[in-house]
DNA sequence: TACACGTGGAT
DNA sequence: TATCCAAGTGT
């Protein structure tokens, strides 16, 4: 049997029943693809369901204020995805009467839609013969063929794209695309692969050679920079001091606790130490309690009532600190 | 090309 | 605890 038939047959029998696979609505598929980027399916599911209730159509998303959109994304990470999805919705309303175009080039020109997502939407929503090369596909294909190319290079992506394009000839593009990704997610996993259950095991070179662990080939990423910070909690009459005046460009549009690289702390009460790991940097935070009279207000700083706290977009690192502080001291 | 960009789960 | 990483995109 050909790979495309093994794969689509396996997919039809064994795929997970995921809520975003049900409607077939191109917008729903778009949202799910953006949310799934670099994110576990289990993690994004709750966000997805809430999102589709809050913004059931492209028009609804396009007309929502960005502050609300970011609040909906709070905790999911990579917040540029939410901004671009919002911009993208506005573009689709403006240029395409609110309908996603069934055209690779035009999809690719929508903010937040890159090569992978364009291929995913085209093949899954519009049944086009369009490869969607993601991390799963790179892993599956590189093992299948013992591909020694570094999967972080564009050249490799192009090579895999062309291979997949050939492989998916005369198949159902939607089941093929999702099948390849589902295989990577459930069977051909980075660790603890389940080759005995794989529909492609008879054709897989890595399986035959017992060299699954060596693929895919990718170069090591550099270690995140570590930063020591002094973070302060300043309560005042049932309020807490928050600010918007950061300079690091991280999580733009979200509020934080005031934070310093240097601050005299001898008159402050030390509350806790916290470590927060980002993909590219690490915050080591010493959290102190300060009295409102000890702190000079700067532009962009404001006291926020505890009731308002839940409705604001706050960076996750500090949301956790605030929650812990409230549980322990309030 | 290399790097910035978040978070939480698995091992 | 340390490490890796999970359906990438923009610059």
TrEMBL record:
Residue ranges the record marks as coiled coil: none
Keywords: 4Fe-4S, DNA damage, DNA repair, Glycosidase, Hydrolase, Iron, Iron-sulfur, Metal-binding
Xref: InterPro entries: A/G_AdeGlyc_MutY (IPR005760), DNA_glycosylase (IPR011257), Endonuclease-III-like_CS2 (IPR004036), HhH-GPD_domain (IPR003265), HhH_base_excis_C (IPR023170), HhH_motif (IPR000445), MIG/MutY (IPR044298), MutY_C (IPR029119)
Reported cofactor(s): [4Fe-4S] cluster
Enzyme Commission number: 3.2.2.31
Broad EC category: hydrolase
BP terms from Gene Ontology: base-excision repair; mismatch repair
Catalytically driven reaction(s): Hydrolyzes free adenine bases from 7,8-dihydro-8-oxoguanine:adenine mismatched double-stranded DNA, leaving an apurinic site
HhH-GPD domain span: 35-186
GO MF annotation terms: 4 iron, 4 sulfur cluster binding; 8-oxo-7,8-dihydroguanine DNA N-glycosylase activity; adenine/guanine mispair binding; metal ion binding; oxidized purine DNA binding; purine-specific mismatch base pair DNA N-glycosylase activity
Gene3D superfamilies according to UniProt: Helix-hairpin-Helix base-excision DNA repair enzymes (C-terminal), Hypothetical protein, domain 2, Nucleoside Triphosphate Pyrophosphohydrolase
NCBIfam families: mutY
Biological role stated in the UniProt entry: Adenine glycosylase active on G-A mispairs. MutY also corrects error-prone DNA synthesis past GO lesions which are due to the oxidatively damaged form of guanine: 7,8-dihydro-8-oxoguanine (8-oxo-dGTP).
Family: Belongs to the Nth/MutY family.
Name recorded for this polypeptide: Adenine DNA glycosylase
Organism per entry: Dielma fastidiosa
């Amino acid at each position: 049997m050909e790979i495309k038939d093994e794969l689509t047959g396996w997919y039809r029998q064994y795929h997970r029943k995921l809520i975003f696979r049900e409607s077939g609505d191109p917008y729903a598929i778009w949202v799910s693809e953006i949310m799934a980027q670099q994110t576990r399916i289990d993690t994004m599911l709750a966000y997805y369901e809430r999102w589709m209730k809050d913004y059931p159509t492209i028009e609804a998303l396009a007309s929502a204020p960005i502050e609300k959109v970011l609040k909906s994304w709070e905790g999911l990470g990579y917040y540029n995805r939410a901004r671009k999805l919002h911009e993208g919705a506005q573009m689709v309303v403006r240029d395409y009467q609110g309908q996603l175009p069934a055209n690779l080039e035009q999809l690719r020109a929508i903010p937040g839609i890159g090569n992978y997502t364009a291929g995913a939407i085209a093949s899954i929503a519009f049944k086009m013969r369009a490869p969607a090369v993601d991390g799963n596909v790179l892993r599956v294909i590189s093992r299948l063929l013992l591909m020694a190319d570094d999967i972080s290079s564009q050249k490799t992506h192009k090579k895999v794209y062309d291979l997949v394009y050939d492989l998916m000839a005369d198949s159902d593009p939607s089941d093929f695309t999702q099948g390849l990704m589902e295989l990577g997610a459930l069977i051909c996993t980075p660790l603890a692969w389940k080759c005995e259950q794989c529909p492609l095991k008879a054709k897989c070179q890595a399986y035959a050679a017992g060299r699954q662990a060596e693929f895919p080939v990718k170069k090591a990423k550099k270690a995140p920079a570590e930063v020591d910070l002094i973070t302060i909690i300043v309560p005042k009459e049932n309020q807490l001091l928050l600010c918007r005046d950061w300079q690091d460009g991280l999580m733009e549009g979200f509020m934080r606790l005031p934070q310093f690289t240097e601050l005299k702390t001898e008159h402050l009460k030390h509350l806790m130490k916290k470590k927060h790991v980002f993909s590219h940097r690490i915050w080591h935070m010493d959290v102190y309690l300060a009295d409102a009279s000890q702190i000079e207000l700067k532009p962009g700083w404001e006291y926020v009532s505890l009731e308002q706290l839940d409705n604001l977009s706050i960076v996750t690192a500090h949301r956790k600190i605030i929650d812990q502080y409230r549980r322990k001291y309030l």
